[in-house]
Write a structure and sequence with these properties.
The strands form 2 sheets. The chain has an 8-stranded mixed beta sheet with strand order 4-3-2-6-5-1-11-12. Strands 7-8-9-10 form a 4-stranded antiparallel beta sheet. A hairpin with a 3-residue loop joins β7 and β8. The protein is of the alpha+beta class. The protein is built from 8 helices and 12 strands. The structure holds aspartic acid. The site of aspartic acid has 13 residues, from β8.
Length: about 300
């Protein structure tokens, strides 16, 4: 059995379909999630992550990505990387080819190039146009968030039941961060415990939405720990979101989303605000779900 989860409507669909395609062609779980996120990053028509996504306040794209493997809690991440895609592949390389967990900025870019990724211009006509619109004060989304259907992050969860019957989970995330962010700003997505967490003893979780709030909540780790205490994925996500709504007043203002999956392949999600769309693929059967904001 393989269960895959992918966030947000348009990029999530691209991600889940590419991931399942890779899986059905024999990819292992790491490569499956990498393929899903890389497909989103490399699609210039998606105003979401990677190529053509919404830049920072200087009009430059700074990308973050991460992957965590629940087998031995190994993880890799990159943050604030310019001119490189797919950064999810670089995050995986950090995990597999260095003794470190995270590389940042210019040195992450240098590492990516050393590992064979060609630097490229990630800006497109459309995201330059959107940036100019924002700069002149004409953008609909003044501060932080990009379009509801696109979003700035794709987070994916994966579960496989191995031949010997043991479950294995992975979490991964890729983001351009919040649109028009201050240059150098890094959110939750590349942070283990905040944007992703995976542990084969329990399950896996991820986050998307307002990175500062999710990070303060250690949202993904907390969701996994709630599942460890016996909660279902849905209960765990709701418990994290309720705690955020109670303790973090700003979390009411914008979507802070937590998603989780246990070792049976049960999936849950909850959001502090707005609606949250998510894709789930069970052995090729793809389902779309929409979650309403919790009201306390
Ligand atoms: N969590 C991301 C960040 O704060 C943004 C998003 O999920 O849309 O960088």
């Amino acid at each position: 059995m393989t269960v895959l989860v992918s966030t947000w409507e348009d990029p999530g669909k691209v991600g889940i379909e590419a991931a399942w395609k890779a899986r059905s062609e024999g990819a292992d779980l790491r490569s499956t999630l990498e393929a899903g996120l890389a497909a989103c990053e490399l699609d210039p028509t998606l105003l979401a992550i990677g190529l053509g996504s919404l830049p920072n306040a200087d009009g430059e794209l700074e990308l973050d990505a991460s992957m965590m493997d629940g087998e031995d809690l190994s993880a890799g991440a990159v943050c604030a990387v310019r001119g490189i895609a797919p950064v999810i592949s670089v995050a995986r390389m950090v995990m597999e080819r260095t003794p470190h967990l995270m590389l940042a900025g210019e040195q992450a870019r240098r590492f990516a190039i050393e590992q064979g990724i060609q630097p490229r211009n990630l800006m497109t006509e459309e995201n330059v146009r959107r940036y100019d619109e924002w700069k002149t004060g004409n953008a609909k989304n003044e501060y932080v968030h990009s379009l509801e259907e696109s979003h700035d992050t794709v987070t994916m969860l994966g579960l496989e039941m191995r031949e010997d019957g043991t479950p294995h989970v992975i979490s991964a995330s890729s983001t351009s961060g919040i649109a028009w962010k201050q240059p150098g700003r890094v959110g939750d997505s590349p942070i283990v415990g905040a944007g992703i967490y995976a542990d084969d003893e329990v399950g896996c979780a991820g986050a998307t939405g307002w990175g500062e709030e999710l990070w303060k909540a250690c949202a993904s780790f907390r969701a996994v720990e709630f599942m460890r205490q016996g909660m279902s994925p849905q209960e765990a996500c709701e418990a994290v979101v309720r705690q955020m709504r109670r303790r973090q007043p700003k979390s009411h203002q914008m979507a802070c989303v937590v998603l989780a999956m246990n070792l049976k392949g049960e999936v849950g999600a909850a959001t502090t605000a707005a609606e949250f769309p998510m894709w789930i693929c069970r052995d090729g059967q793809i389902e779309f779900r929409q979650y309403e904001a919790l009201k306390d």
